[in-house]
Every structure is written in C-alpha cells, then in structure tokens.
Amino acid sequence: MEIYKDSESKTTIFRFTALYTKAVVNKELRVYMNGQNQISAIKSMG
C-alpha cells in the first residue's frame, strides 16, 4: 500500500497493488479521500 497527498486539491490517495505470480497482469485499486476524510472516488486500474 502506498499513500500520496495532493496538497493542491487536499486529496489523499491510497494505492493498493495486487501481487501475482506471473508478471503479465498488474492490477491496482485507488481510493481517493477529500479534505473531510470522506471517500470521493474509487478507481480500479489494470
């Protein structure tokens, strides 16, 4: 898990990466939280 803070938009981004035995697939889940600590977006990438 990685955590990034965007000071301009006051958003915190949590990145969760799935680990697979084969390097063919790379999946990631991103959860965005706004300044009021509320989830503002959820993205599935990969």
Summarize the structure in short.
The protein has no helices and four strands. The protein has 46 residues and is an all-beta fold.
Written account of the structure:
- The protein is mostly beta strands and 46 residues long.
- Helices cover 0% and strands 59% of the residues.
- A four-stranded antiparallel sheet has the order 1-2-3-4, with no helix packed on it.
- A hairpin with an 8-residue loop joins β2 and β3.
- The mean pLDDT is 91.
Helices and strands, with pairings:
Layout: E1 2-6, E2 11-18, E3 27-33, E4 39-45
Antiparallel strand pairs: 1-2, 2-3, 3-4
Task: Give structural attributes.
mainly beta, single chain, 46 residues, elongated, 59% strand
What share of the residues does DSSP label as strand, in percent? Answer: over 45%
| Helicity level | under 10%
How many strands?
4
How far apart are the first and last residues' alpha carbons, in Å?
16 Å
Indicate the multimeric state.
Answer: single chain
Order of helices and strands: EEEE
Average pLDDT works out at: 91
Q: Outline, from the CA principal axes?
A: elongated
Largest sheet: 4 strands, antiparallel
